[in-house]
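Renewal narrative, Specific Aim 1. Our central claim is that a sequence can be written position by position from structural information alone. The example that follows is taken directly from our test logs and has not been curated for this report. It begins with the structure tokens describing the chain, in the order in which they were read.
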């Protein structure tokens, strides 16, 4: 896939992997529409790339706001040919101790941002993407979709569901819109605001973004980034060990 001249929609563009994706896509000649919640950071992103980046300030958990943005994108950006569902949040919660019940709002937001929003964006924008001879939907998932960890069952569940959604959507496109590639990018632990204070060795956002773009350019259906590739192999040959290693990650 050639990215120069394309219009790419990136969610979670204000920071972390999304900000790096925007920067690197612009470097390859793409035009980026960035969606995020932080208006100041989005404004700075647009100011840094005045001719190639436009932004929407949208809370993906706000269904009316997201629906309005999708309607505007459908009518105002027929040139859109790549959708990258990158935004994600994680809400650690102990269901047994009652912590999950006390933070139901955070859990519902987690489902909305990590799963419902990507599905809504695909539902609204796939007909636009399908008008192009070569298009793509990229869903950013996680190694925790393959082997979950104890402390964040909601996050793990949403990423596993997004992986399953990606595969089913791929089947639909293979039958009805083969020009649209559905890409599942499985991330390891990446050094972002969400993972601050967690884990040890982390991939940098710029490395994570670069690996995603390489996979997209090579027309891969699945892209296992960094240590997620080792986890994939481990789960094939010794899933019990994989589950044990990730259990308390």
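The sequence written for that structure reads:
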């Amino acid at each position: 896939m050639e990215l120069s001249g394309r219009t790419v929609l990136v969610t979670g563009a204000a920071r972390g992997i999304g900000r790096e994706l925007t920067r690197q896509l612009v470097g390859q000649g793409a035009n980026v529409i960035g969606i995020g919640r932080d208006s100041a950071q989005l404004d700075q992103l647009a100011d840094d790339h005045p001719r190639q980046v436009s932004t929407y300030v949208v809370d993906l958990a706000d269904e009316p706001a997201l629906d309005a943005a999708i309607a505007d994108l459908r009518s105002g950006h027929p040139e859109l040919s790549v959708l990258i569902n990158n935004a994600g949040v994680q809400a650690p919660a102990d269901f047994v101790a009652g912590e999950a019940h006390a933070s139901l709002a955070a859990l519902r937001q987690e489902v909305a941002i990590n799963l419902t929003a990507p599905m809504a964006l695909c539902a609204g924008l796939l007909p636009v993407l399908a008008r192009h001879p070569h298009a793509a939907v990229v869903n950013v998932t996680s190694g925790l979709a393959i082997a979950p960890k104890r402390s964040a069952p909601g996050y793990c569940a949403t990423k596993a569901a997004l992986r399953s959604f990606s595969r089913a959507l791929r089947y639909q496109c293979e039958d009805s819109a083969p020009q649209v590639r559905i890409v599942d990018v499985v991330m390891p632990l990446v050094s972002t605001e969400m993972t601050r204070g967690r884990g040890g060795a982390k991939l940098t956002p710029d490395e994570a973004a670069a690996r995603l773009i390489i996979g997209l350019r090579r027309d891969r259906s699945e892209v296992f980034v960094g240590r997620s590739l080792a986890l994939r192999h481990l789960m094939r040959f010794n899933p019990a060990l994989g589950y044990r290693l990730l259990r308390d990650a």
